[in-house]
Protein: FAD-dependent tricarballylate dehydrogenase TcuA
Organism: Pseudaquabacterium terrae
Amino acid sequence: MLDVLVIGGGNAALCAALMASEAGASVMLLEAAPREWRGGNSQHTRNLRCMHDAPQDVLVDAYPEEEYWQDLLKVTGGITNEALARLTIRASSNCRDWMRKHGVHFQPPLSGALHVARTNAFFMGGGKALVNAYFRSAEKLGVQIRYDTPVVSVELDGDRFVAACTVSGERIEARSCVLAAGGFESNRDWLREAWGQNGRGEWPSDNFLIRGTRFNQGVLLKSMMEAGADSIGDPTQAHMVAIDARAPLYDGGICTRIDCVSLGVVVNREAQRFYDEGEDFWPKRYAIWGRLVAQQPGQIGYSIIDQKAIGRFMPPVFAGVTANTLAELASRLGLPERAFVHTVEAYNAACRPGSFDHTALDDCRTEGLTPAKTHWARPIDTPPYYGYALKPGVTFTYLGLKVNDKSAVHFGGRPSPNLFVAGEMMAGNVLGQGYTAGVGMSIGTAFGRIAGTQAALAARKEFEHAAV
């Protein structure tokens, strides 16, 4: 009989398969997508947030555990399991050598407005290269890989895994199993059910775009919850980013993100500002803007900058709408002209002189304006002016299965002896809300490796028990 079955094909699943195989287990990995779309959302990633007490190869300065924890605590508002969060943080400090052993390469540190050269290690070639390296390594280790094989449910004996059931009706037995099949962000019906209607009679999720794979339908997650697995998380919470409104429905990836928010102002379709654009460094705040835009009329916003901002942010894949006057820009964006000009002029008048420095929390702020802009506030007064329409882009959902430090699925508070979960399917244990750049890969890598190790141990125990 097969030792370990891994369900999923992204970073967490691959880490689990590699670790289980290294531990001597026979492993099969089932990927719902066809080969050309393998890798789930991991193919769209770029980096891993890493704790380090001193400079390390591609990481500059230091990023100690307590600072990482405080960054996570701030974005989650305390909705996190500290023990599991710290486990993730510590694991992020020592995984890169293992990753390199499996063919992952890291690029030299970035500089500039992204402000992440100290905290994040970037993959050479991005997430697609990482996924391809892991698949190559898995094949060399003898992992059986099957594509186009969605799993719809698992067969249980109490809290024990027995077999997986595929969409075609096939039943695959194994001594242990790792679930790493992603969240439900691609399931439009489930998103609609979770978000419901707002007070304006709108169905907000109908206007959401999905930044990643179309294959994360949440079928296995829902099946596990219906089978009695303990769940955690709010179904409306997700890694949700403000992205270009012209992005495709699926697989737009990182290039559709609009990164100039902190350099200007953001207005809704009524030309009103609604949040502090300069609250904190962009990598710590970019992931709140999808949800903020989702709460606006029509689930749309507009990022507005002038010529002074050009060259200070990663340019998006689509060019912005440009104009030489504010009134002309409003017209081209379809915004109410008088209200838009008034909003920008009121902001300009509220800006106080300071020493602008987009690499620091500077003293450029507004006074007497609601909402305030607390950093990087400079008048928008230098044409040409640029506008980017924004829509909420969902990366992954946080509703998932409850785990312990062994990554075990729980039933009625009791951990399963041979069923484990990693990646998006359990990220809600660490991310109750909010996000900070690269932490999703940290969670997937940490718990994928734990789940693979524990699944191999469980399989050995199952074999020894059967032999007796």
